[in-house]
Design a protein that fits this description.
By secondary structure, this protein is mainly alpha-helical. It has four helices and no strands. Helix 1 packs antiparallel against helix 2. The longest helix has 27 residues. The chain is globular and about 55 Å long.
């Protein structure tokens, strides 16, 4: 057995991971909000402003596809009428949570995902 199989995450380790995840999630969602707000209606390709936001996120070390997908979902959530179709909004919010959960799993933060 390898040495890493004997290592156990302590409460302090999980607290540090929780703080790191909260900061990362807040920053990714900020990029995604900006990405969504720069969408040009009727345009299928990303605008220059959206490309700049995606590359700024990449420069900070965040996956570009995560920012793009989260931005798209946020735009769809904002555009949906929650009173007329609550199931659609709920489904989009669930997709966004699943997207962030998958990101947390890939980087080893699944234990602290909220």
């Amino acid at each position: 057995m390898s040495v890493s199989s004997y290592l156990v995450e302590t409460e302090a380790d999980l607290a540090v991971k929780a703080n790191a995840w909260k900061a990362m999630e807040r920053e990714v969602m900020g990029f995604a909000q900006r990405y969504a707000s720069e969408h040009v209606i009727g345009q299928t390709a990303p605008s220059d402003a959206q490309r700049n936001i995606a590359w700024a996120a990449k420069d900070k070390g965040y996956p570009v596809t995560l920012v793009k997908k989260a931005g798209s979902l946020l735009r769809r959530i904002d555009g949906a009428d929650s009173a007329a179709d609550p199931e659609k909004v709920s489904g989009l919010q669930q997709k966004l949570r699943e997207l962030m959960r998958d990101c947390a799993r890939k980087i080893g933060f699944l234990k602290v995902f909220q």
